[in-house]
Design brief:
This protein is α/β, with parallel strands linked by helices. It has one domain (about 5-20, about 70-205): 3-Layer(aba) Sandwich (Rossmann fold), CATH 3.40.50. It has helices at about 10-15, 20-25, 30-40, 45-55, 65, 75-85, 135-140, 160-165, 175-180, 195-205, and strands at about 5-10, 90-95, 110-120, 120-125, 150-155, 170, 185. It has a 7-stranded mixed beta sheet. A hairpin with a 2-residue loop joins strand 3 (about 110-120) and strand 4 (about 120-125).
């Protein structure tokens, strides 16, 4: 039985693996962003400092340029609707940015991500809410849920905590062997229809 489903957004519900990099490509700032990424990977700045300097590359950009339309992966909305129709609480979590929540906000119970801050219609900063996905453990406790009744779907190292704890853990197109080994089930597919089939088998309907 599944009472809650934790779904990673970037790379699972979307085709792109990073909302940060996707937006950099759209706005033409990816070259500058690579300097920030290298500094973070080298340990010269921490995650919060990296997020701030990265978002500063978009300082003053209109909100309409930031909240760009995105294409959800095939089967994404069908998966969300399937779970909601069966009274499964849906927690969408992203180490990316809150613009990815726009096309799914009517289908999920909770959406957790880093938040771009706007003033007078222009970007001014970022609020880091998801430095790592251990934040999910806090929400699970608040909702008084048991990990034995949780399905988790993720693809990256950031998803390891929830994949290791959830009884029904699915590594979806995992980025490496460690992520694959952390899950009970590994799915490699360009669509999310196999996840619907798995959820249907678990729920028995």
């Amino acid at each position: 039985m599944i009472r809650a489903a934790i779904l990673d957004v970037d790379g699972v519900l979307t085709y792109f693996r990073s909302a940060w990099q996707h937006l950099h490509r759209v706005l033409g700032t990816d070259e500058w962003a690579s300097i920030n990424r290298d500094a973070y990977k080298a340990g010269l700045i921490n995650y919060r400092d990296w997020a701030l300097v990265d978002a500063l590359l978009w300082m003053g950009v209109p909100r309409s340029w930031i909240e760009i339309p995105i294409t959800l992966r095939r089967g994404a909305l069908e998966l969300l609707k399937f779970l909601r129709e069966r009274d499964v609480s849906i927690i969408a979590v992203s180490g990316g940015l809150n613009y990815t929540g726009i096309p799914i906000r009517d289908y999920v119970n909770y959406f957790i991500s880093n938040e771009l801050i706007f003033d007078n219609g222009a970007l001014i900063s970022v609020k880091v809410n998801v430095e790592n996905k251990e934040i999910i453990d806090e929400l699970i406790r608040e909702l008084r849920l048991d990990w034995d009744y949780v399905m988790a779907v993720g693809d990256s190292d950031m998803d390891l905590p929830m994949l290791r704890r959830a009884r029904y853990s699915i590594a979806y197109n995992p980025v490496n062997e460690e992520v694959a080994n952390a899950a009970r089930i590994v799915v490699n597919s360009n669509t999310l229809y196999p996840i619907i089939d798995i959820a249907r088998a678990i729920l028995g309907k």
